[in-house]
């Protein structure tokens, strides 16, 4: 088995920065008690101002004035690790979050689909960069070795135990994950490299050091297996993005929204499912959340399309208060069935399939704007058609000439100059469902030369009622 | 003066520009009415362009004009979209005219969204024809429809009252429908001279 270790060295900082549209403004993460706030991490722009991780906030403020402070939130980091595991689950069925800030993937069984490794690695890096995470990736023959080699290397690919062992021998003794006292004891003994330690006789090591040291060394070399707990994707998606500032316009919500949707699609791709409805919660400082429900007619997972739809719904919304946090929730994750496409598409320039167009129209015009039409077997004109039919009947043979346009409500037709073109056609039906109709229909020509379909109720005198146009 | 300048030389130097008749594909989108197809320069509707149909009154024969084309498109499995029609398309009659209703889509929308919806449908390229009834369409709006029809390679029809005929329009084809006598008048057709004689609507009345 081959194990890829993806180390996320700046996870906490990336987690904050990916939700913001301004990567170049100085940003620091704060941690520690309120009396003594300490800079946990700084971004490149803040480092250029002379800020360093580990500084006290007061001294940082003395050095530079304008930088953004964000509180370090371990819970958000944990949620993000889960998301990344869901993303990685797409590439391997064995994904482990054994170590903090690290994804361990068994990749040998995935190489047939995604491989060879250089291409696979490039894809992992490209997708992580798109998600907004910096990464170090190492491939080795066992998970512990991959994790420890990632401490010193990036892009290392070792595909057999001998190579792994050779690389491990060159590792400095402090960087291989040994207990701190053991590592310092080794270096005080003059053993700077792991290779020197491994050259020592086992019995002597076992006598001088705790059993954990030997166990760790054996695991590094793959002599003893390590039990890893593997990630199992959940059946729902719930991600929250803290904006850390009050947002009052839709425009400013679009960037975090795009992030959330991209995360959602990364999760969906891992589960090979799609989404049919999801809810956007706009959390306010006080009061209940504003919920935006987005429902689709078909299962989708294309990020661009989901973003367009969510944006369409969001733009119609009146924000009643500034938005603090954005949260995307969905319970409904049906299996995704890709669209059936012809190899030789008769319309090659088709840049948006009909399903997407329909969703787009519904998002802006309302859920009930787009209809299909069907004919029903009924003699009454108002019952002979239906919107959005559940079942489609086979075309019927036309009984008589019928108008192409039907008026929603019959209108009185002024009698002057109207010329009857045909004799009466009696339509008498509907006594069983209350919509009783007894009418004589005529094809008439109006003085302006239009052909109309008009009727008179049986036993009634008076004007004709216009019901349709023979257009 | 007096030096003889050869015409070929001028043309070779590109100092004189010569208009060439553009070769038009024939009969890509026949209207289904033989007399009309003969009169139109492309042998039918201008493909991937806007056609303006100017009506003497709503219901004066627009369906008679369009039904054969719609029937042909839906039979080929191409979608036909009606954006905000003024009346209900009466399904049995459309079916009798040969239109396959499963490819017919109706979009109900407010007056100010008609052009937006039509433009989206045209631009997507997933429809065979888009019919819209814009309430107020100025030159700019029609030009947008024309560009959208071009980029989506879709037939576009804008149905407007006859009063709009006096305004210039960017549409590739403008046809007026008269009710009395029942006839079509081609007001403008791109790529040829508009026939001066009206064309009688066959089979109407």
Q: Any overview of this molecule?
A:
The complex is a heterodimer of chains A (471) and B (205). Chain A has 471 residues and is α+β, with helices and mostly antiparallel strands. Chain A has 3 domains: 3-25 and 67-221; 237-330, DNA polymerase, Y-family, little finger domain (Dna Ligase, domain 1), CATH 3.30.1490.100; 403-469. Helix content of chain A is 31%, strand content 25%. Chain A contains 15 helices and 19 strands. In chain A, the strands form 5 sheets. In chain A, strands 14, 15, 16, 17, 18 and 19 form a 6-stranded antiparallel sheet that branches. A 4-stranded antiparallel sheet of chain A has the order 5-6-1-7. Chain A has a 4-stranded antiparallel sheet with strand order 8-11-9-10, with helices on one face. In chain A, α13 runs antiparallel to α14 (303-315) and α14 runs parallel beside α15. The termini of chain A are far apart. The model of chain A has no long low-confidence stretch (mean pLDDT 86). Chain B has 205 residues and is an alpha/beta fold. Chain B has a single domain (30-200), classed as 3-Layer(aba) Sandwich (Rossmann fold), CATH 3.40.50.300. Chain B contains 6 helices and 9 strands, in the order ααβαββαβαβαββββ. Chain B has an 8-stranded mixed sheet with strand order 4-2-5-6-1-7-8-9, with helices on both faces. In chain B, β7 (173-178) and β8 form a beta hairpin. In chain B, α5 runs parallel beside α6. Chain B is globular and about 75 Å long. In chain B, 47% of the residues are buried. The model of chain B has no long low-confidence stretch (mean pLDDT 87). The chains are: A alpha+beta (471), B alpha/beta (205).
